[in-house]
Amino acid sequence: MEKNKMYWDELEGHIHLFSKNRIANIPSEKIERFLYLFRSASHHLAYARTHYPKSKLERYLNTLVGNAHQHLYTVRKNPWDDFKIYILQDFPKALRQYHLFILASFFVFLLGAMISFIMVVQDHTNSLYFLPKSILETIDYSFKDRQWDYPLMSSQIMINNITVSLKAFVYGLFLGIGTLYILFVNGCILGALTSLVYLNGDLLKYASLILPHGIIELTAIFIAGGAGLLLGKGLLIPGKYRRLDYLIQSGKEGARLLLGCMLFLVVAALIEGFFTPLAILPIIKLGFAAFTLLILILYIKFLK
Q1: What is the C-alpha to C-alpha distance for residues 214 and 212, in angstroms, rounded to an integer?
Q2: Helix 243-270 vs helix 150-170: angle between axes, to the nearest 10 degrees?
Q3: What distance in Å separates the CA atoms of residue 240 and residue 292, rounded to the nearest whole number?
Q4: What angle is formed at CA 59 by the lines to CA 57 and CA 64, rounded to 5 degrees?
Q5: Nearest Cα to 230, choosing from 247, 218, 206?
Q6: CA dist list (Å): 90 to 63, 255, 296
Q7: How far is residue 198's CA from residue 304's CA, in Å, rounded to a whole number?
Q8: Helices (DSSP H) in the chain: which residue ranges?
Q9: What are 139-185's pLDDT values in tens digits?
Q10: 192 with 131: CB under 8 angstroms?
Q11: Cβ-count burial of 30 within 10 angstroms (0-12 exposed, 13-18 middle, 19+ buried)?
Q12: How far from the centroid of its chain's Cα atoms is residue 212's Cα?
């Protein structure tokens, strides 16, 4: 026992090392030494079980080998690594996998926007169907530059957009009808507002105020809507699965989409709160909007 104790102590040191560090940060010679010490301790345990059954030595070696064994097959996970894998692999893969649901979400939103736009162009009073009178009276069609409380504005925008996205997802529980309603109504609001600007204001400046953040923001809402429609499908068309089981599975997949959607909305809120209000040329803001669109396309299409 005395001549082997130094090896057991060394193995305990390696176990402590593996517990505190990622496997990638441990030198290869340390790993090889750990494997040698583990095999040696396993042989010592077998010997103790044969010659010293139920002894303190057997219990000690059994605990030591058990602790070491965990590190043979489990690598201590780093949450940051998991996050990077989700952002760079899992989320774009999910977007491609469920692209039909996301496209359906987009077209429902677009339908609402087109209907309200046409109605308001034909008669501006129709805007009252989509926007409260109190909002209509505050619209400044000159879009003059003004002072902003950037942090406050960014946080309020983020909270509002996250709320809309959560509703678009959760309302999928109403057979997807609630999701369709949220998307259609929000499309109508944007369409009516755009139509009023078309009739009374400067469309270029209007576009420069909504597109820099709007590309990412609307994409996030379409993703949330797609997640809600996926949830609705789980209820309506379970296929060969039990309805509850398929609903749970669809909910998990929808939540996977929703997490990335929330991250998109945080980025959009920061852009809307800090970049959009800047007193710079509209063409620069539109160029930035085009850049965000390009980045989104590359992100969805090429990251695997």
Answers
A1: 6
A2: 160
A3: 41
A4: 95
A5: 247
A6: 38, 12, 15
A7: 41
A8: 2-20, 28-51, 56-73, 79-85, 91-97, 99-122, 133-136, 150-170, 177-200, 203-236, 243-270, 282-302
A9: 777 777 665 554 555 566 567 778 888 999 999 989 899 999 999 99
A10: yes
A11: middle
A12: 20
> What is the model's pTM?
0.72
What is the C-alpha to C-alpha distance for residues 65 and 127, in angstroms, rounded to an integer?
Answer: 74
| Distance from the Cα of residue 291 to its chain's centroid | 21
Contact assessment for residue 66 and residue 43, using Cβ atoms and an 8 Å cutoff:
no
Q: What tens digit of pLDDT does each residue of 180-194 get?
A: 999 999 999 999 999
The answer to whether 229 and 101 are in contact (CB under 8 A) is: yes
Q: Which two tokens stand for residue 43?
A: 């042989």
- Report residue 197 as tokens: 């600007």
Q: At what angle do helices 203-236 and 177-200 cross, to 10 degrees?
A: 170
Those residues whose C-beta lies under 8 Å from the C-beta of residue 252, and which sit 6 or more positions away, are none
Q: Measured between alpha carbons, how far is 137 from 135 in angstroms, rounded to an integer? A: 5
Quote the CA–CA distance of 7 and 42 in Å, as a whole number.
Answer: 12
